[in-house]
Amino acid sequence: MGNGAPIKITGDLSAIKEIQAVGGDTLKKCYQCATCSTVCPLSTDEISFPRKQMILAQWGVKEKLLNDPALWLCHQCGDCSKYCPRDAKPGDVLAALRLLVIKEATPFKFIHKFYNNAWGLPILAVIALFFILLMTVFAFGGWPNFFDPSSFPYGGPEYDLWILHLPARVLMIDLIFLPLTAFVVIILMSAIARVWNAYVETCKIPQAYRYGMWTILSRYLWPAIQEILSHTRFTKCDANHWRAAPHRLLLISFIILAITTAIVFFMADILGFHTPWNPILHPVKWLGNIGGLLLLYSTIQIIVGRGRAEVEKSVKTSYPDSFLLYLILFIGLSGFGIEIFRSIPSLSSVVSLVYISHLAAVFMLFLGVAYSKFAHLVFRTTAVVFDLYFKDVSEKMKSLEAGQLKKELQEVEESQVQESASEESPAPQGA
User: Fold this and answer.
1) How many CB atoms lie within 10 A of CB 147?
2) Which CATH class is domain 13-105?
3) Mind listing the pLDDT tens digit for each residue in 326-337?
4) 51-59 vs 13-21: helix axis angle to the nearest 10?
5) 3-state helix, strand, coil in the chain (%, to 5)
6) Taking a C-beta distance cutoff of 8 angstroms, is the pair 269, 178 a contact?
7) pLDDT (mean) for 255-273
8) What's the pLDDT score for residue 423?
9) pLDDT one-digit tens code per residue, 415-430
10) What is the mean pLDDT of residues 88-114?
């Protein structure tokens, strides 16, 4: 750079086409006016986006793009897309790049294709139903009558396993979701390690500051979670500031439902207090219903808001967006449907079908934590943790450099004082 030598960048046409195929089809409209970085409230001198990412994407510099944590600091609020004079939609391009990060970081990439293409939906449904029905036959000792709630899900044999007493439906759910959860956790741990190491190398963090996992988690994870819960960055967005409230509510609803699930698992599997519990009297049911209502309300708000934003051309709702939103909506509706149909005798025959549909949707959502847009929850958290870590390391390095510079200046001043004193001292008298 110092001698004015040109930098050679080799474009990758296949990478450009890949970015365009997953939602960045407006990429080539960008002519680098820098309006996007100017209007972005999250862009800084140190982390300037999305202009930098648009340049690299236009050249197909895939590896450098996907190893950039700044991709996840963007919340696709739409400011850049709204004010882009060429309608290049930088926010949509960054969203496409985030999908590519998920794809490249996780094994079994064919599953990623199922989640991010409309033709993959029936395949995912078949996979979910296959595992659910397989475990149903195993737990119920054969094929139950799906039109009789006393046969399925509220019938079947009961099992005594060590100190546990499990009805067939509880064993079935454990056999479905415990292995699935373990699989997703292993996939995500591998993906997080991969992207984290890429961030460290890309940002050239010195070896002395490459802390261990527990040091990183103890120092930066909780501040990152606080920032995510408060949606600090989301609230800075202008074009679609409405998104902050429903997204925060949706996150809270997932936390409530996760707590409810953990309580039910402990009470049913460990203590033997099995569902269904009275939805009117039981406090855990109240907690679950509150979480479900928040989930439905926030999801509908996001869907309606996105529709308005599309009219304003500030946000584009791609298939991965729609898939996740309507899957969550279906989970909420089918969850309440089980309660409603179970309480109405004339509709009890469809409870089992709604129950199976609900489990299939939950199965797809669980698996999607690693492969769908729902993986943002994990990848963005990782990027926020890294951002806090990198800022801390940068400040320490600046302080160290400033201290070293101060020490060098003091040494120079002392040397100059000594030289001055030596010149001013009288020469010794000769004999």
Assistant:
1) 13
2) mainly alpha
3) 999 999 999 999
4) 120
5) 70, 0, 25
6) no
7) 86
8) 62
9) 766 666 666 655 555 5
10) 91
SS3 per residue for 269-294:
HHCCCCCCCCCCCCHHHHHHHHHHHH
**Which value, in Å, is the radius of gyration of the alpha carbons in the chain?**
28
Dihedral sign for Cα 382, 383, 387, 390, please.
positive
Burial class (CB in 10 A: 0-12, 13-18, 19+), 118: exposed
**By the 8 A CB rule, do 299 and 332 touch?**
yes
Q: How far apart are CA 208 and CA 215, in angstroms?
A: 13
Ranges of each domain in the chain: 13-105, 109-388
Question: How far apart are the C-alpha atoms of 408 and 323, rounded to whole Å?
Answer: 60
Mean per-residue pLDDT over the chain, rounded: 86
d(CA 319, CA 296): 20
Backbone angles phi, psi at 238, to 5 degrees: -110, -55
Cβ atoms < 10 Å from Cβ of 352:
22
- Note the pTM of the prediction, 2 decimals: 0.86
* Banded pLDDT at 431 (limits 50, 70, 90): very low
Tokens of residue 291, six digits: 């979480």
